[in-house]
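Deliverable D2.4 — example input (structure tokens):
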């Protein structure tokens, strides 16, 4: 692959263009918003000059409802030899493409499982797809050259290819992406009119749950409109669980001891199911999840403090598997939670204390 056209320079399109340009691919940028295309070009994602002939691959990075019309336009212009889209829903665009009678021999649907809670070309990052799954949903007549072009795209972006049926993909993303987005928004919505004293008590737990609630509603309307039925089905199941949980909580307040035990059992069961589901989420590098030990270190909000902490951990011969920072409200300090192998926790704690760090038990 030597030449690529990226049609749509939002977060995903710009990130793909940045990754490809960094690997020496000549990238031609298009967008209905010419300012967005020029911004992506200024970031080093490619050029807004049109290609002289058909490019090797066109990446259509537009909302699901626009994939069919944009693909029709690109094929009519002979923009590329092969085509893929990166929309987050696959069944709807495939149906639109079939209804328009477009060439599917040289087309393959795809979806990189990566994103951010901010959008637009300025949010683009060349490393956005590194190590992330990138789903490919070939049609029954997608030819080998087109599949290979898509696989090369995935490799150039540093992602991991996963081949799936379009409908199975949509059910999967409804469960692991679209429903969590709405649940996060629903929890965050409770904070909108909450008392300031309550909001100031927010800790890492509520930050983790509500992080993606900062996403652009306009972008999510496009996504959810294309997968609304499946997401609604899952939310109905969540609503049933919520109803049972509410009933269990009411039982915990009952005067009758048997009722309280019943309520406790209900809460225990929903949390047990949550434990089991969370344990199935792949861990580091896609491996089975590993239970790490946590070493919590109080750190000042000053330049170089994190680097010094990581350096001291390195000198202790300990690999940091993950990190989280809980910021103190109103203080220039935070609690850094270092996830390490359980066998390394005691030694790291001792080494850090020897170097003057305040390690919390």
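Example output (designed residues):
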């Amino acid at each position: 692959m030597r030449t690529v056209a990226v049609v749509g320079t939002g977060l995903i399109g710009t990130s793909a263009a940045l990754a490809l340009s960094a690997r020496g691919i000549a990238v031609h940028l298009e967008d209905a918003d010419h300012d967005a295309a020029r911004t992506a070009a200024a970031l080093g994602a490619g050029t807004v000059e049109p290609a002289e002939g058909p490019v090797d691959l066109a990446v259509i990075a537009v909302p699901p409802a626009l994939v069919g019309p944009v693909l029709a336009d690109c094929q009519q212009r002979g923009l590329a030899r092969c085509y893929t889209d990166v929309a987050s829903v696959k069944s709807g665009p495939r149906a639109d493409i079939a209804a328009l009678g477009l060439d599917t021999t040289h087309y393959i649907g795809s979806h990189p499982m990566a994103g951010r809670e901010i959008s637009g070309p300025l949010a683009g990052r060349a490393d956005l797809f590194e190590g992330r799954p990138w789903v490919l949903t070939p049609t029954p007549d997608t030819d080998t050259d087109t599949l290979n072009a898509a696989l090369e795209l995935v490799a150039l972006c540093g992602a991991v290819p996963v081949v799936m049926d379009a409908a199975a993909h949509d059910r999967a993303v409804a469960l692991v992406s679209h429903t969590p987005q709405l649940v996060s928004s629903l929890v965050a919505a409770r904070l909108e009119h909450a008392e300031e004293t309550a909001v100031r008590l927010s800790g890492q737990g509520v930050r983790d749950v509500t992080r993606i609630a900062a996403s652009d509603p306009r972008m999510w309307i496009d996504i959810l409109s294309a997968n609304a039925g499946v997401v609604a089905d899952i939310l109905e199941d969540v609503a049933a669980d919520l109803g049972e949980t509410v009933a269990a909580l009411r039982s915990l307040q009952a005067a009758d001891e048997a009722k309280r035990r019943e309520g406790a059992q209900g809460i225990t069961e929903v949390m047990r199911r949550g434990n089991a589901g969370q344990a199935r989420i792949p861990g580091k590098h896609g491996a089975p999840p590993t239970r790490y030990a946590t070493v919590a270190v109080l750190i000042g909000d000053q330049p170089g403090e994190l680097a010094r902490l990581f350096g001291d951990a390195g000198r202790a011969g300990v690999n940091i598997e993950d990190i989280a920072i809980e910021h103190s409200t109103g203080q220039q300090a935070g609690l850094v939670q270092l996830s390490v192998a359980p066998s390394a926790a005691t030694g790291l704690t001792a080494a850090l204390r020897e170097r003057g760090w305040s390690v919390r038990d």
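Residues 228-252 form the longest helix (25 residues).
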